[in-house]
From TrEMBL:
Lineage top rank: taxon: Bacteria
Name the UniProt record assigns to this protein: Amino acid/amide ABC transporter ATP-binding protein 1, HAAT family
Membrane-crossing residue ranges in chain numbering: none
Cellular component, GO annotation: plasma membrane
Organism placement in taxonomy: Bacteria, Pseudomonadati, Pseudomonadota, Gammaproteobacteria, Oceanospirillales
CDD domains assigned: ABC_Mj1267_LivG_branched
Record-linked InterPro entries: AAA+_ATPase, ABC_AA/LPS_Transport, ABC_transporter-like_ATP-bd, BCA_ABC_TP_C, P-loop_NTPase
This protein's UniProt keywords: ATP-binding, Nucleotide-binding, Transport
Species this chain originates from: Marinobacterium lutimaris
Domain ABC transporter: 7-238
GO biological process, one term: L-valine import across plasma membrane
One of the Pfam families matching this protein, by short name: BCA_ABC_TP_C
């Protein structure tokens, strides 16, 4: 019996007018896997995430979750099926307290017990002590963790993260990366991580896919990608 990948993208194409931003990308991710997605600026990483999550309907290709074709589903419908994402910029509400907004997000995601779900997420991300704080009063690293909490409510099966370490210090990046790795393992969440911090990507990813000009350049374990001469030339540089 052939095993179907839990989350797959097949021959994805995205056009912006006459410009082909994504050109035939094929990606298969197993349940519980952390997959890094890297590439130079303009490689099409954010466009790829938008197409996978329903913010942009692809020109061609297919997105499957657990064998179901979800290519034409809207963002909300995909979220209800377990596909969640975060953005390069935090999506928190600065004037709302921490617990309230996580609870509301959990309720919107139709968690069975939104209050318990919200408290559990905050506790796992070391944010429960700030439950009554106004989100805007948190430090930036804590705001990034809160953003991750909002993406994790409702127990999604797939989590797509678009540069979650952006703007963080080295220490904050490593801390958030370890939270992410632990939560992915404990919750058996499939993660697609777009990130410029190579130490984070290589440190927590099971496999890494490299894009260049909208096309797949290479795929492999972190060690294989580090050693790949095409990747080093196109992106990583001699310091990789």
């Amino acid at each position: 019996m052939i095993q179907v990948p839990f989350f797959s993208v097949r021959d994805l194409v995205v056009d912006y007018g006459g410009v082909r931003a994504i050109d035939g990308v094929h990606l298969e991710i197993n349940k519980g896997e952390i997959r890094g997605l890297i590439g130079p600026n303009g490689a099409g990483k954010s466009t790829f995430i938008d197409a996978v999550t329903g913010r942009r309907i692809p020109t061609a290709g297919q997105v499957q979750l657990g064998g179901e074709d979800i290519t034409q589903l809207a963002v909300v419908a995909r979220r209800m099926r377990g596909v969640s994402r975060s953005f390069q910029r935090t999506s928190i509400f600065h004037d709302m307290n921490v617990l309230e907004q996580v609870f509301l997000a959990s309720h919107q995601a139709q968690a069975k017990d939104p209050e318990r779900d919200a408290v559990a997420i905050l506790e796992e991300l070391d944010l429960l002590q700030y439950a009554d704080w106004r989100a805007g009063d948190l430090g930036y690293g804590q705001q990034r963790r809160l953003d991750l909490a909002l993406a994790l409510v409702g127990s999604p099966s797939v989590l797509l993260l678009d540069e979650p370490m952006a703007g963080l210090t080295v220490t904050e990046s490593r801390d958030l990366a370890q939270h992410l790795k632990r939560l992915a393992r404990e919750r058996n969440v499939t993660v697609l991580l777009v990130e410029h911090d190579m130490e984070v990507v290589f440190g927590i990813s099971d496999r890494v896919t490299v894009l260049e000009l909208g096309k797949p350049l290479a795929e492999g374990t972190p060690d294989e990608i580090r050693a790949n001469p095409k990747v080093r030339e196109a992106y990583l540089g001699s310091a990789a």
